[in-house]
Amino acid sequence: MSSTSKTRTVVRGGGSGAVYGLGLIGALVYYWQHAHGFWAHVWAIAEAILWPAFVIYHLLGHIAT
Q1: C-alpha distances in Å from residue 17, one per residue of 13, 20, 21, 22, 24
Q2: Measured between alpha carbons, how far is 51 from 31 in angstroms, rounded to an integer?
Q3: Angle 46-32-34 (CA atoms, 0-180°, nearest 5)?
Q4: What phi-psi label fits residue 30: left (phi over 0), alpha (psi between -120 and 50 degrees) or beta?
Q5: Closest CA to 50 of 29, 32, 23
Q6: Where do the domains of the chain lie?
Q7: Is the pLDDT of residue 11 over 80?
Q8: pTM, whole model, 2 decimals?
Q9: DSSP string of the chain?
Q10: Rounded distance, CA 62 to CA 30, Å?
Q11: What is the pLDDT of residues 12-63, one digit of tens each?
């Protein structure tokens, strides 16, 4: 007798990547429009990638005061 077991994996909450991706695109557009010059555009790309860290930093700064 051989028993065959089948497992099923359920993934929930997979939409957060899409939300972060839309936030990334929105931040890139925002920072890109406000950049003037080559290095400012390079920094705009970095800011677009790191925007959640900036949001948390400023949010905690407002909460602390």
Answers
A1: 9, 5, 6, 9, 10
A2: 10
A3: 115
A4: alpha
A5: 23
A6: 38-65
A7: no
A8: 0.64
A9: -------------TTHHHHHHHHHHHHHHHHHHT--SHHHHHHHHHHHHHHHHHHHHHHHHHHH-
A10: 22
A11: 766 778 888 898 999 999 999 999 999 999 999 999 999 889 889 999 999 9
Q: 């949001």: which residue's tokens?
A: 55
Residue 30 buriedness (CB in 10 A; 0-12 / 13-18 / 19+)? middle
Per-residue pLDDT, 3? 62
